[in-house]
């Protein structure tokens, strides 16, 4: 089971990159192979074989979304600070905003009093900013899911990763007035260059405990059952408001699965939280220096970044707040 990584006291601040044993071992193997070739060229088959095996191990780790072999990775929520029986779980929703699906997801969450974390794609957020604003206005969190959600993200080099993540960071901060604290890689796939870049921007990598495969499964009940099978406190669930598969009726399957999941969680007396609210549960804090050059969105004058930031309210956009306003999907 992976454990959430250490967090800087000033959330969103750059932090020091700490290589994992796999990465350290790979670097040592490369150095050893080079030394062996210089000392005894006839050992080249062993040296080359070792280097190839090292690269295969790193690639395999990147293809395993829930792995912590390449760096810290949130696959479950941290334990409660006071040691109490914490019943919190987190719903994460990826690949939006989507003008058709996102408003209806928000209405379902409102109906069940649930809060969620939306991992938004920067380009889509720029195209549909009012939906992102509404996510925040209704009490949910918006986090970084890259700017373009490109399929070659996991084979990109450090510069390309940095551009993609920084662009989304700027886009989402400008729209919501709150900088993201979490990043989720497209399809959960990554490479060893990602964690050092996330450290520059003070971002935490988040994957999931269980997923519904709702981008390819057309049966909402099956999606819900995948999420509910073995559901436990501190789990992180994954659904999609973007790229959602459709059921036989043509309805996005997430809209069929989500009510079943929300009802089951309520019956189990589980409480929905956002990932950024779960940051309060993590006691393992380590100092870090704010790198404003690498992370221009960081405000070094703020002693508590969450107190310093306030979500931007969507201008002229009514929301469903229990005061007689129409639901967002009726606007």
Automatic annotation (TrEMBL):
Q: Which CDD domains match?
A: CE4_NodB_like_6s_7s
Domain of life the protein comes from = Bacteria
Which InterPro entries does this one have?
Glyco_hydro/deAcase_b/a-brl (IPR011330), NODB_dom (IPR002509), Polysacc_deacetylase_ArnD (IPR050248)
Q: Enumerate the SUPFAM superfamilies for this protein.
A: Glycoside hydrolase/deacetylase (SSF88713)
| Region ranges (Disordered) | 294-331
| GO terms assigned for molecular function | hydrolase activity, acting on carbon-nitrogen (but not peptide) bonds
Bias-annotated ranges (Low complexity): 294-303
Q: Enumerate the PROSITE patterns for this protein.
A: NODB (PS51677)
Domain NodB homology stretches: 87-275
Task: Name the GO terms of the biological process aspect.
Answer: carbohydrate metabolic process
The name under which this protein is listed is NodB homology domain-containing protein
Q: Which organism is it from?
A: Paraburkholderia caffeinitolerans
